[in-house]
Structure formats: C-alpha cells, structure tokens
Design a protein that fits this description.
Aminopeptidase; binds ligand BES; single chain; binds zinc ion; alpha/beta; binds manganese (II) ion; Leucine Aminopeptidase, subunit E, domain 1; 18 strands; 8-stranded mixed beta sheet; 2 domains
C-alpha cells in the first residue's frame, strides 16, 4: 500500500471532552461557529470535518475517550471521506502504536464473498511504527478472515494450506500428518475427525534458530462443530464456523513471532478436524485412545475440542519446550463466566498470571485468570476408562475443560491455556461483526517482554 508523505495528509486531531475548549480556541472564528452549529461536543466516535476558507477539508476533529485507545481512531476510520489522513498529535498518555492499530482494526471488511469497495480513507503511518502496526494488522486480519470463512471453503486440509502459505512467507517448515499416520499417532484427533468426509489432520509448523529457547503453540482447529451425535440446536450451531478460532490465533501468533523476529524457536501444533454426524462418527459411550496413552470415555461428543487438543498438547510436551501456549474456543461456559470480551486463561504456573494480565492491559487486550481447581478433578472420573471427556454437570465448565487438558501437559513444563470466544456479535468501534482476535496482542506482548532481545 503506498503511503503518501505526511505533508499531503489531512490532519486528524483527537479531542476529548476535557481538551475541547483548548482545541476550539486554536480555530478560526468561522470554524468555531461551525462546531457550534454541528453540536460537536467531542463525544467518543463523533467527528467533524473542518472547512477552510475555500470550503475544502482543513482538518478533522475526532472525539475520543482517553481510556479507550483502540476505538479512538477505530470508531471513525470506516466513516471518514476518502482521502489521506495523518494523526496530527498523540495526546498525552496515549500509546501511538495502539491508536494507529485501532484505525486499521476499524477498517476491516470481509470481502471474499462481497464486491464492496472500502471507503478509501488511508492513514499515514510514521516510519518508526509502520512495520509493527502493519504486522499486527495483518495478523489480526488473518484471524478474522480464517474465522469468517465458511466451513465449505475451509476444510481441515484448507486450514493446513493456510498454514503452509503463511509458513512459506517466513521460511518455516510445515508438516501435515493425516490418513493412517494420523490414526496411528494421533488417535484422539482421528476419533473426532473420522465422522467427516473431509479427513482430520495434525499441522506442524517449525521455525527459528537452534540457539534460541523453544516454545510450543497449540490450537483447536475444529473447522465446524455440529456437536456430533450430541447434536447442537440450530441457533448454537450457527456460529460454529468459528470453532477453528484457536488455530487461527496460534497461526497469527506464529506469524507475529516470525515477522517481528522474536529471539525464540517455536513449534506450532494444530489439530484440524470437522465434528460431524455420519455412520463413522464417534459415539457417546465410546472409549478412545490418546497419544499419551490415557483412555477417554466419550460422555459427550460436543466436548470435542479438549479431545483433539489433548493429542496436540502431548505432542508439544514431547518437544520439551520451556513454555506451551494453547488457544481454543473450548467452552460456552467461559462466556457465561466473563462475557464475550474477556477471555479467561489458565496456567500451571501462578507466577505467569500477573505478567500475562499486565501484558493484556498494556496492549488493550484484556485477559483474566481462572483457577485450575484440583478438587474438581473428580468430575472427570470414569467408571470404564481413565477419564471422561465431559463432566456430568455444567458447573465450572471452563475449569473442567482446562483440567482435562492439564492431564496431558507434563508438570515440569509451564503451560498457558486461553479459552477464547473469537467473535463479535455486533459491530462496535474497531470491532466489526464476525471473527475477532482475542488475547493475541496480550500473549505476543507477554512473549516480547519475556524474550526481549
Ligand atoms: N465449540 C464449543 C464451545 C463454544 C460454544 C465456544 C459456544 C464458543 C461459543 C465446544 O466444542 C462445545 O461444544 N462445548 C460444550 C461443552 C459441553 C458439552 C461440556 C459447551 O460449551 O456447551
Ligand atoms: Mn463442541
Ligand atoms: Zn467445539
């Protein structure tokens, strides 16, 4: 995308209720009048084009809330007239990178199936931040595009292809395990995926230099979740194209690490399946095997995410990393607990909680810890196998799912699990309806701090 030089751009001024008076005094009398006539009071999301004496746009005043960094420009970027803009000044205490990123996040459109032109408003990115902002933007857009793509056009092997395409850009190694090899080596992924005509796979992406510390990323890649034989109702099934959101996050995080050359080495493992109903579907009461060797009694085929993820986590442990991070749209219960905007996370190292929360705050991407309650292990008891995949009651649903996963993570490896929603139910500033990245900036910032070069 060509970036015009800053001088040719229309200036954007961020104005809050408390700076409006001072801003007004800098304007020509006729411009002050113009504000008055248009009842501009600098409320968040309100903007006003200021004419010059020739009737052209001289500058734009944008109302914003100093506590909401992403929405400051994100609220207006889709609505401004075509043209080239620049942020004239960064208000005290505001993070410039997040202000600029907010603009981009607001500009997103999912255009694969619609021929709609964008509004042609472009923001000048200052040299010092350009690469970082564009990298973050592309990672976010990749998550949204992957989630928004309907399952007809995103089979498990299409997801593998998306990983290959991304890996190739940065010289990563991509390996895909499917068919008989998957059945032998990843029996749990195979069990969930075999109900679909579009077979399951395990996608591996490897990147980095030997001298750097190794971390592992894992993602739930359920490209569509019907619930299986424990079939979901229509309303709850409607959004289940987003059930590969965890894998989209893992891939986007991988992309950020590669593009911004974090001094780490990583291996990413994505369990890609379609949870379908057919003569080959796994059944409630089936006992399946896992890569770790534990047997699992399937008490609910709709609790499939933890079943596929457990094989990916086991594979991650075998790589002996110093940290494992997984993303999964794992439970509805996580939303019941914290709502759609704050993903809960779980970790087997309490000392990581504070750092991750802080990174989330600093990157305008809040996440919140939930406990791994040892006492609830009893809910996973099975009479016939080593464990069930689903507790008998719906209490503590997000915790039970995390406890199930914990059984597949070696105790000596620090592990963080994020239970994300990955979706905006309606359009808000900087958050268009549809797929959404959550916890991505938080985790990336956390990693940047932990492994700063
Ligand atoms: N993919 C869903 C979880 C989900 C549902 C995420 C809605 C976001 C929004 C998962 O596979 C699932 O179906 N979970 C069940 C678990 C239950 C059977 C224990 C759920 O949350 O209802
Ligand atoms: Mn499910
Ligand atoms: Zn699911």
């Amino acid at each position: 995308m060509p970036y015009t030089t800053a001088e040719q751009c229309i200036n954007l001024f961020l104005v809050s209720a408390s700076t409006l008076d001072a801003q007004r005094e800098q304007l020509e009398p006729f411009q002050q009048q113009w504000l008055e006539h248009n009842a501009f009071d600098a409320s968040p999301g309100q903007f006003i084009n200021l004419p010059n004496a020739q009737g052209h746009i001289d500058a734009v005043l944008v109302g914003y809330d100093p506590n909401q960094v992403l929405t400051a420009l994100g609220a207006v970027s889709p609505a401004l007239a075509a043209g080239d803009y620049r942020l004239a000044a960064v208000p005290d205490g505001m993070d410039e990178k997040l202000l600029l990123l907010g603009w981009s996040l607001g500009q997103y459109r999912f255009e694969r199936y619609k021929s709609q032109a964008d509004n042609g408003a472009r923001l000048h990115l200052p040299e010092a931040l350009r690469d970082q902002v564009q990298s973050l933007q592309q990672a976010h857009f990749m998550v949204r595009d992957l989630i928004n793509t309907p399952p007809l056009d995103l089979s498990p092997s299409d997801l593998a292809q998306a990983c290959r395409d991304c890996g190739e850009l940065f010289g990563a190694q991509v390996n895909v395990v499917d068919g008989e090899a998957l059945e032998n080596d990843y029996p749990a992924i195979h069990a969930v995926g075999m109900g679909s005509d579009r077979g399951p796979c395990l996608i591996e992406l490897t990147w980095g230099k030997d001298e750097h510390p190794l971390i592992c990323l894992a993602g739930k890649g359920v490209i569509f979740d019907t619930g299986g034989l424990n079939l979901k109702g229509g309303d709850r099934m409607l959004h289940m194209k987003k059930d590969m959101g965890g894998s989209a996050h893992a891939l986007a995080l991988a992309r950020l690490i590669m593009e911004q050359q974090l001094p780490v080495r990583f291996k990413m493992y994505i369990a890609a399946v379609e949870n379908m109903v057919s003569g080959r579907s796994y059944r409630p009461s089936d006992v399946i095997n896992t890569r770790r060797g534990y047997t699992v009694e399937i008490t609910n085929t709709d609790a499939e995410g933890r079943v596929v993820l457990c094989d990916a986590l086991q594979r991650a442990c075998e790589s002996k990393p110093e940290l494992i991070i997984d993303f999964a749209t794992l439970t509805g219960a996580a939303r019941i607990a914290l709502g759609p905007d704050v993903p809960p996370f779980f970790t087997n190292r309490d000392e990581l909680s504070q750092a991750l929360m802080q990174a989330g705050n600093d990157s305008a991407d809040p996440v919140w810890p939930l406990p791994l309650v040892d006492g609830y292990e009893r809910y996973l008891h099975s009479h016939v196998a080593d464990m069930t995949n689903c507790a008998p009651s719906s209490f503590a649903g997000a915790i039970n799912a995390a406890l199930f996963l914990r059984r597949f993570v070696d105790e000596d490896i620090p592990w963080i699990h994020l239970d994300i929603y990955g979706w905006n139910n309606g359009s808000r500033a900087a958050r268009p309806r549809g797929g959404e990245a959550q916890g991505l900036r938080a985790v990336f910032q956390f990693l940047q701090q932990r492994y700063s070069a």
